[in-house]
Amino acid sequence: MAIKQWKTFLMPYQQAVEELKIKFKSIRSEFKFRNEYSPIEFVTGRVKEVSSILEKVKKFNIPMDKIEYELEDIAGIRIMCQFVDDITKVVNIIRKRKDLSILYEKDYITNVKESGYRSYHIIIKYPVNLSIGCKEIISEIQIRTLGMNFWATAEHSLNYKYKELIPPNLKKKLKEAADAAYQLDELMMQIKDEIKDAQRLFGVKSNIVSNINESLISLISLGRVKESSNYQLQLTTLIEIGDINQLNSLLLSIQRDIDKYKK
User: Fold this and answer.
1) Separation between Cα atoms, residue 206 and residue 118, nearest integer Å
2) Is 140 a catalytic residue?
3) Which of 43, 115, 121, 260 is spaced 20 to 30 A from 82 at the CA atom?
């Protein structure tokens, strides 16, 4: 296949990746907008390089005219989670979506690979609307924790270096690292409520500070520059040592002044 033909062939896959990234990032934003904990930490995606496609085609003896049907990960989305139980929540979100269809799922968290690899894979069929019509793209969604992703990235690099023939002593260390990463995930699960609460408080505090800054701009627009400067000094102090109640009180004071000076 010529370079131009490859570009044409891969174009809908690129579109699928971009659309899916936007959709899952929007889900995260939706949780944040409602001041709720999001099981999605961040989302990445990629289309396989032509060289990687050809390597896989050769490895699995896939006919060139069957690539789009038999190669399931040309388009790939990766969803990262903070905690192991977030993975189940994300899987359930995907199962409920009407804009894609699930072909099958592969649970490498319950059924850990011999290497130590852990991740949850969902193979989907996703419709891409092109100028010439709709084309269904087979894509892979990987859902894993940050720890699982760190390990998988390291393993991928070593497989590339050693052409998938990693020395036995290195394989053993990799397996030990995979188990250690999962133990960390398990420990984090034990303190997740504390972590979630701290993150929620940080989000609430950030929203209040944003509202205070907007209110200070309103004060300045009313010609009350001196008052705004005094409040800004108080805000600077409270950001460092204050709590949410004190920030709320400051916001209410500024809003009362705005109402007073508007009259």
Assistant:
1) 35
2) yes
3) 115
At 163 the pLDDT is: 80
Per-residue pLDDT at 93? 97
Q: What is the 3-state secondary structure (H, E, C) of 148-186?
A: HHHHHHHHHHHHHHCCCCCCHHHHHHHHHHHHHHHHHHH
Distance CA 171, CA 158 (A): 10
Q: Residue 223 in contact with residue 183, Cβ under 8 Å?
A: no
DSSP state string for 19-75: HHHHHHHHHHHHHHHTT---S--EEEEEE--HHHHHHHHHHTT--GGGHHHH-TTSE
pLDDT of residue 195: 87
Residue 13's Cβ-side half-sphere holds a number of Cα atoms within 13 Å equal to: 25
Q: Please list the residues that pair with 145 across neighbouring strands.
A: 81
Average pLDDT by stretches of 10, the chain with 263 residues: 81 96 96 88 95 90 90 96 96 96 96 95 96 94 96 90 87 93 93 87 89 93 90 91 91 92 79
Task: Name the catalytic one among 18, 30, 49, 140.
Answer: 140
Residue with tokens 């990445």: 44
Task: Provide the b/e sequence for 200-223 (b: ≥16 CB within 10 Å).
Answer: eeeeebeebbeebeebbebbeeee
Of 19, 70, 27, which is closest to residue 45 (Cα–Cα)? 19
Q: Find the largest Cα–Cα distance for the chain.
A: 79
Place of tokens 């009362």: 256
Give residue 239's identity as a one-letter amino acid code: I
